[in-house]
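URGENT: need a sanity check before tomorrow's submission.

F., can you look over the ComF family protein record below? I want to be sure the sequence and structure line up before it goes out.
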Amino acid sequence: MLHLPIGRWRDWIPADCPGCGRRQGGQGLCAACLASLRPDPARPCCGRCAHPLDEVGGCPDCGPEPPAYDRVVAAFDYAGLGRDLIRDYKIRRRLSLARPLADLLVRAVLAGEAGNPRPDWVVPVPARRESLRRRGFSPPAEVARLLARRLGLRCHLDGVRRMREGERQAVLDRALRLRAQVGVFTAFGAAGRPHPAPPAHRALSGSAADSARPLSGRRIAVVDDVLTTGATLQAVASALKEAGAVRVEGWVLARAVSPGSGRDGGRGRGRVLQ
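Structure tokens as predicted:
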């Protein structure tokens, strides 16, 4: 027992569930919280953006033109407990939630893996400088590196960079979000946009580093915390495909859904753990 790897100790040391606060044997979310976050398998969702379909089988969130990304995988709805966990992670800066949240996204990726090719790279959406200064960490980057290690994939933390800061998405409506993100991002290898390779320690592949492979012909998974309008994912996917990527998927922790489409948005845990 004393010689167990550090990761295995998490499976049996008692701890409070970060979702409900109940004491349990092991780290991470308890069985009840995991069950409450599990998507309804009977609920039909859009094959492109993962939003629940409407009564006539149409997607209320997709526009007439197909987006630059090819598929979205979401771990849970941005509602109830899922919303609480995201807020704890991002707003209350509970970095310890990165691992259980990454585990939830791993579960969703593996559940939808059949018939879909595995990506060559995992790339996080780059955080704004102001957000990095305020939080001290990048929520997508922390989840991306943990997820990549679990799945044995290459994680390129600097695969996408910001050309400019852009406006905070939370204060914009849908139309403004879509316009505001145009030209914000650039990807490694984009024509006319120098993007030098980062130091070796910034590119992870589970246990090995690889920071110099071109994007041409590559399949990329973009990791983010919440997908709302898809404006950020659209802009990142466009930059990646401009640099030569052939397929871009969005792997997100939470998917915001229209009222009435998802689970009860008000059914959270009723409190936020400090």
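My own read: Residues 194-213, 262-267, 270-274 have pLDDT under 50 and may be disordered. The chain has two domains: 1-37, 41-255. If you see anything odd, call me.
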